[in-house]
Automatic annotation (TrEMBL):
UniProt keyword annotations, A-Z: Glycosyltransferase, Magnesium, Pyrimidine biosynthesis, Transferase
Enzyme's top EC category: transferase
Protein's name in the database: Orotate phosphoribosyltransferase
Protein's gene: pyrE
Binding site for orotate: T145, R173
Length: 206
């Protein structure tokens, strides 16, 4: 089984060592190969869509996770003390960024935001280290559609006393999320837009 996984993923092993422009291109290849699908889908927002992006196929990929961590770390402001996101989509992303940061000599805490408060113990919404008040936290997402998931994370973090000024996503579907963040006074950037994925996917299908 292990040998089979190595064969399937070997072509993306350069995500660990390549320079960042190459890593970005490899991530685009990987997204188009394993995450992007066309068909009839219902999104978490309730919207119908002719395509679907399963970001976890990349963020939980043996090498994809490293590539995602490297790219997103490069986009973080220097004063970032933690990265956070709403479970489940953001869990592997914040972990990857934190681990890659540690290898580069930076201490960035990963925080996971529950959709509902824990039903026992501290009954907390936020899992991870308890940081000092006013710590700078950046919210991470795999795919942004309407922006609602990240905004839930932003609200929970701010309620806990943290400063959140930015959301970063691996992919932006460009269906209102960016506009929502702008209205809420948040900076927003995405590694890829849906146009990037669809254009490259068509090239690969040719």
């Amino acid at each position: 089984m292990t040998d089979g996984i190595l064969v399937q993923t070997r072509e993306f092993s350069s995500l660990v060592t390549a320079d960042l422009p190459q890593v970005r291109q490899q991530l685009l290849d990987l997204l188009c190969e394993v995450a992007y699908k066309e068909g009839n889908f219902t999104l978490s927002s309730g919207q119908q869509s002719s395509y679907y992006i399963n970001g976890k196929q990349v963020t939980l990929h043996p090498y994809g996770a490293v590539g995602v961590g490297r790219i997103l770390l490069s986009l973080l402001p220097e004063d970032t003390q933690a990265v956070a996101g709403l479970t489940l989509g953001a869990d592997p992303i914040v972990t990857a960024v934190s681990v890659v940061a540690a290898y580069e000599g930076r201490a960035i805490a990963p925080l996971i935001i529950r959709k509902e408060a824990k039903g026992h113990g501290t009954q907390a919404y936020i899992e991870g280290l308890t940081l000092p008040a006013n710590s700078s936290v950046v919210v991470l997402e795999d795919v942004v559609t309407t922006g609602g998931s990240a905004m839930k994370a932003v609200e929970r973090l701010r309620d806990a006393g943290y400063v959140v000024e930015e959301v970063i996503s691996l992919v932006d579907r460009q269906q209102g999320g960016g506009e929502l963040y702008e209205r809420e006074g948040l900076k927003f950037q995405a590694v890829f837009t849906i146009q990037d994925l669809q254009a490259h996917w068509k090239q690969l299908q040719a």
